[in-house]
Fold this sequence. Notes:
The structure is a single chain. Helices cover 54% and strands 16% of the residues. The strands form 2 sheets. A 4-stranded antiparallel β-sheet has the order 3-4-6-5. The chain has a two-stranded antiparallel ribbon with strand order 1-2. A hairpin with a 2-residue loop joins strand 5 and strand 6 (99-103). 27% of the residues are buried. The chain has helices at residues 8-27, 77-85, 109-146, 151-184; strands spanning 43-46, 49-52, 57-63, 66-71, 94-96, 99-103. The chain has 4 helices and 6 strands; from the N terminus they run αββββαββαα. The chain is α+β, with helices and mostly antiparallel strands. The chain is elongated, with a radius of gyration of 22 Å.
Amino acid sequence: MSEVEIDFDGIEKRMEGAISSLKSDFGSLRTGRASSSMLDAVNVDAYGAMMPLTQVATVNVPEPRMITVTVWDRGMVGAVEKAIINSGLGLNPVGDGAVLRLPIPELNEERRKEFAKVAGGYAENAKIAVRNVRRDGMDQIKKAKADGLSEDDQKFYESEVQTITDAKIAEIDKILEAKQAEIMQV
């Protein structure tokens, strides 16, 4: 019988990837507090191509409820302003030369609940990704069983994969709970 290797590190890294993707998604959710990551999804029509905002300007958060966008090329200020307005974030830039100020308005209760639901959807997608990695790990173990893995080892490996999965799902739930509390905070 050959020695069978199950890649637990690879499984855990892929599950961590789902969690870091979730954190990134949560960063783009508006919570009533300023965050430079809110503008990560904004693309600007610059020089005949769509470019991420961060490639034509510097984004700063000088105050908890204010974002400043310093456009490098003064000729692009109008295009950046238009891209922010059309982004659907509900932000209204105030121009000051090459600097755009974005005051972050308070969220009303209805919008907060809406954002909390969106956060729940992001978390559910992350859980699905973790479960898909779990399924791949279980498939690896089944293949190893066909290649001569003992039944005891199979059960041990399956319980290890399940333990990792349960820990990652619990971590996702904890992150979601914290994000929803942040969103609902008045």
